[in-house]
């Protein structure tokens, strides 16, 4: 394959958390409660990733392959478990799946971008397979928790409205 195409695909994978989050955000525009909870959940999920990395303290793989100019990124995490890219992407995708009434093109595109993200992070030795799986599990579970909280809130407000 042409090296420019490969670089383009790698860049999509690198930007995967942003792309999948924007797709989910866009899909929730007509659902203000879910949109609000997705935004709050995204902030909490990012914070959770930083906390878990500082507690687990598992280093990233040695000898990473240069992809971007790393010294330009201030405060880049030195720890790799769980993968932030996998955690953020899986959070967004799971929330999209849980809030969609039907399987949409958004879900298919998001899953494809998520796969590109995992491949990019592994290919450039930024994460091990275990770190990618860890990020996926944490992001998916946290997304389910945020969805459950949202559903519980909506049920309570519906019950209160039905009283009047």
Task: List the main descriptive attributes of the protein structure presented here.
mainly alpha; 164 residues; single chain; globular; 0% strand
Any overview of this molecule?
Helix content is 73%, strand content 0%. Helix 1 crosses helix 5 and helix 2 runs parallel beside helix 4. The relative contact order is 0.19. The termini are far apart. The mean pLDDT is 88. The chain has a domain of 108 residues. With 164 residues, the chain is mostly helical.
Report mean pLDDT, rounded to a whole number.
Answer: 88
Helical/strand content category = mainly alpha
Strand content: under 5%
Number of helices: 6
Q: Catalogue the unreliable spans.
A: none
The Rg value, from CA coordinates, equals 17 Å
Gap from first CA to last CA? 64 Å
Largest sheet: none
Total strands: the figure is 0
Task: Please bin the fraction of helical residues.
Answer: over 70%
Order of helices and strands: HHHHHH
Gross morphology is: globular
What is the fold's blueprint, element by element?
Elements: H1 3-14, H2 16-27, H3 32-56, H4 84-99, H5 105-123, H6 129-163
